[in-house]
Amino acid sequence: MMQLEELLRSIKVERVYNDKDMRVNGVSYHSQKVSNGHLFVCVRGYKTDGHKYLAQAVANGAVAAVVEEVQEAFDIPQFVVKNSRIALAQLGDAFYDHPSKKMKMIGVTATNGKTTTSYMINAILENEGFKTGLIGTVSIKIDDTSIPAELTTPESLDLQNYLNQMVEKNVSHVCMEVSSAALETHRVETVDYDIVSLNNVSREHIDSHGSFEQYFEAKSSLIRNASERSIAVLNLDDPYSSSLVNQTKAKVITFGVNSKEGHIHCKNLDLTTGRAKFTVEILKAFKANGAEYIPGEFDIELSVPGLHSVYNSMVAITVALLSGVAVSTIQHTLKNFAGVERRFEFIYEEDIKIIDDHFANTGNINVTLQTLKYMDYKKLHIVYAIRGERGPTVNQENAEAIVEWAAKLGLNEIIATKSISHVTAKDKVTDEEQRVFEEVMAEARIQVDLYDELPDAIARALNKAEEGDLVLLAGCQGMDHGAEIALQLLREKNELRIEILE
Fold first, then answer.
1. Span 446-463, pLDDT tens digits
2. Angle 461-464-469 (CA atoms, 0-180°, nearest 5)?
3. Burial class (CB in 10 A: 0-12, 13-18, 19+), 89
4. Is this prediction's pTM over 0.85?
5. Are the CB atoms for 398 and 387 separated by under 8 Å?
6. Are 179 and 154 contacting, i.e. CB atoms less than 8 angstroms apart?
7. Separation between Cα atoms, residue 63 and residue 82, nearest integer Å
8. What does the alpha-carbon distance between residue 263 and residue 256 come to, in Å, rounded to a whole number?
9. CB–CB of 195/233 below 8 Å?
């Protein structure tokens, strides 16, 4: 519990209605989660407005409210603020006594690779012996306890609650995925970061942000708003990431795979098997956590495949060095790190190879297909799940990205699917989305074998694949069941082969 007056010092109150001081024992923004003695914050969302639920909040025990407009039907104290979302973040931080200041906070953002990078960092820190927390798309990890995640980055009040639980469990390092939506909606407004990173930016979430420029504005704010006490890790190979080098108060540490202008360089990259081996070269000395890193090098071997995994690992390696982790721990962890499901995941490696990848946007597509260019195989077969309800622009751009690589990969045919029985109504492929995809392919003279159902499309690819070939299961929502279907079809095929031999 704390005095309401003390709690309100954390926000800028523009006007007060029916003022009185009292003790509050909680803060809520969801009326159904209100208990007796709570301060209720009326948050305006995309689909609804918290002001509409003040009556229910009061009925459930709310004793005061933070609002953007006074609701005169209620005689409880109301405190008017300009933006209740920002107020919610500030109140949550104050109520839980500023938990992010008590741990090493690592914020990871990118269009692609946030989840894998966060898991890599967490694994390295754990193996060094730190107690860790992890917040992201898959789950929220509080030391040895995991909770399924509802959002990539939780709502601000929930986030502060999780961070407080981590403090209570003596967690020392927290790695969190920071989404563009979380940045735009002020969910991480009061998080005190020690290290922030932005690995890559490509066209994604355009509809929800209004334009790519607004998307980048939100994404880059993690770096631009970083404090002078923090360190920003930036990728010089990505033009958007590198553009931020001089746009932050944070100390900047840079890396590159192609670029040799940064502090850290990836050299001698070998991707022939799909799983990278390379040498990390420290080109410029830097200091962190009382340690000084002088020019030198060490070898890395990844168990997770893909060129994108190299970039993700470069972020993880840099963050680990900045956190004082031993090089031997980094090497051991990355050699044994198993990866995250559906991120360039090898699901079958016998007479043929099958890779499952979520292939979400042009950035993801480019780095995935660029990896294939490095690999050894005979023929490539792509099964692509068209993105449903993402609009014609996204599907046209994705198709154009595939076409751009087609000639380099010897691809003149693609198997596509609408995955009708394997997607929900919100992910159904529209006629226009199908049309733009087929038009781009036709213009490039790439034959499209289009199937309504995912199993039929995968069966077509497996029937065409011969020894030494590579099958890529590519796509987001429509391909979520692809690996399971492919492995079942292979089992049935092998059982049939055994029966024939017998």
1. 999 999 999 999 999 999
2. 85
3. buried
4. no
5. yes
6. no
7. 21
8. 8
9. yes
